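[step 3/7] inverse_fold.run input=structure_tokens len=510
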């Protein structure tokens, strides 16, 4: 009798440690596994269930929150820890994201803080603007020594000391804020000759710092965009009479790559582009409803996203402004804020409907879609809590792991960018298992059970009702348009593209 003995090396049969699993040997011959596809599908359903079971996106709130609605927020571009938020009561607070606590509270403005932005240096400078028409320069580090990050933690003890009361030296009642170790280091105002009889003629509504140069831009109520040099107290350049309009400019943003390109949104429902070298407007697109916010894609700077009053978000290619490249639906309230992830593959929106949603960029927009995305413009995830009210500002951290949201209930909340992701270091076995489960879900996501489990989300009752009502109204409009085309003269009526409907007209430079 001929006997064949199995021979294996000792390294392939022994455990690397006492807590490790014993290695097993598998027969990879397909004929030995006739039910492989069925078992794999069962594993995919289990993986989808596990993903939803471990979905706990809410991490916590930042301790020492505001006493009024959070109106704006900015996250440092060069450091993971610092963040700044502005409040309706005129205060600005500096936050340490690592410890989730407040560093200092600054009495910055006498009216609502309409915008905050960080500089592009490592000195920790940031700027805030208010509706009283003042821009102030601050530092996240105390004035005595701002080169060490340990000052952020030590400043908590300084805040407990009694501070001097604010004094107003302005005849108009404008408040420059009390002196503190964090500033203000400089104060900027529009020239008095530009003021008119209106009370808010010089109110600032938005501010943004250049990505490379030492300058910043503001949007004001006098229908103008102003460029500022931090070393000068007056604007170095002004864009007024934009395309012959006198409407308030609400948002202004610098392009991350094109050093001399600016984009703005205005109350006349327009989205405009400027060239700061020629001090002239380039192109403007008029939409059917007003845009509340605008952000450039940090990885593909020719793309930007806007949040609109029609409850949708739209992505545009600045080379083709006549039609949006993407349309993202789901909210039942106006989109108040948008923010791109540092990877440029997705963005988050905050809405008046008390929810925040994450959208993956569609492939037609020119970006490789994130795992788990779809091509229908539907949010990949929805975050909400019972106490969270209308969301006015959102933002990603630099490591693409967390999301910050500021809402009308005075709180700034910290969320995980991926709801079921584990916080902390993963072992090699955990990473391998996680990647395998994600691959299984993506392979079978089109099948009923996996799709139902992975796509289902619990939303507030009023959101569910309003969404169902919106679907009924949409079907009604679609049916009406179909009847008009059907009973009209052949060729006289055509179906209108949904993306083309939101664009009224495009205006070139004057």
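[step 3/7] decode complete -> sequence:
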């Amino acid at each position: 009798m001929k006997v064949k003995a199995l021979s294996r090396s000792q390294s392939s049969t022994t455990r690397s440690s006492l807590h490790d699993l014993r290695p097993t040997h598998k027969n990879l011959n397909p004929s030995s596994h006739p039910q492989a596809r069925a078992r794999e599908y069962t594993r995919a359903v289990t993986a989808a269930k596990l993903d939803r079971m471990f979905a706990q996106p809410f991490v916590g709130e930042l301790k020492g929150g505001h006493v009024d609605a959070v109106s704006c927020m900015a996250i440092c571009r060069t450091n993971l820890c610092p963040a700044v938020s502005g409040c309706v009561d005129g205060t600005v607070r500096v936050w340490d994201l690592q410890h989730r606590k407040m560093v200092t509270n600054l009495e910055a403005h006498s009216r609502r803080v309409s915008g905050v932005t960080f500089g592009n240096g490592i000195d920790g400078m940031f700027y805030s603007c208010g509706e009283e028409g003042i821009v102030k320069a601050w530092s996240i580090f105390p004035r005595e020594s701002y080169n060490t990050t340990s000052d952020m933690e030590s400043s908590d003890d300084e805040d407990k000391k009694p501070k001097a009361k604010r004094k107003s030296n302005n005849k108009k009642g404008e408040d420059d804020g009390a002196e503190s170790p964090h500033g203000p280091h400089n104060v900027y105002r529009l020239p008095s000759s530009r003021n008119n009889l209106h009370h808010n003629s010089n109110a600032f509504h938005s501010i943004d710092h250049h990505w490379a140069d030492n300058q910043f831009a503001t949007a004001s109520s006098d229908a103008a965009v102003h460029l500022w040099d931090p070393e000068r107290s007056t604007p170095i350049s002004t864009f007024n009479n934009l395309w012959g309009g006198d409407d308030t400019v609400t948002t202004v943003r610098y392009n991350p790559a094109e050093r001399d390109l600016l984009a703005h949104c205005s109350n006349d429902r327009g989205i405009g582009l400027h060239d700061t070298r020629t001090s002239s407007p380039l192109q403007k697109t008029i939409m059917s409803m007003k845009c509340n916010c605008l952000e450039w894609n940090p990885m593909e700077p020719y793309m930007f996203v806007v949040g609109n009053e029609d409850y949708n978000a739209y992505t545009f290619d600045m080379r083709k402004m006549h039609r949006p490249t993407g349309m993202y639906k789901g909210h039942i309230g106006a989109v108040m804020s948008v923010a791109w992830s540092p990877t440029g593959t997705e963005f988050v929106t905050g809405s008046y409907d008390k929810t925040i949603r994450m959208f993956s960029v569609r492939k037609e927009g020119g970006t490789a879609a994130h795992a788990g995305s779809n091509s229908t413009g539907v949010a990949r995830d929805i975050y909400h809590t019972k106490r969270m009210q209308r969301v006015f500002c959102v933002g990603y951290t630099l490591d693409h792991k967390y999301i910050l949201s500021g809402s009308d209930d005075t709180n700034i909340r910290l969320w995980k960018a991926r709801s079921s992701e584990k916080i902390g270091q993963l072992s090699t076995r955990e990473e391998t298992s996680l990647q395998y489960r994600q691959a299984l879900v993506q392979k079978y996501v089109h099948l009923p059970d996996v799709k139902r489990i992975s796509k289902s989300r619990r939303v507030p009752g009023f959101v569910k009702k309003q969404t169902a009502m919106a679907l009924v109204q949409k079907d009604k409009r679609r049916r009406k348009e179909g009847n008009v085309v059907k009973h009209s003269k052949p060729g006289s009526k055509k179906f209108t593209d949904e993306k083309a409907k939101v664009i009224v007209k495009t205006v070139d430079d004057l």
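[step 4/7] annotate
Helices lie at 36-53, 150-159, 428-443, 448-455, 461-486, 498-501.
The first strand starts at residue 58 and ends at 61.
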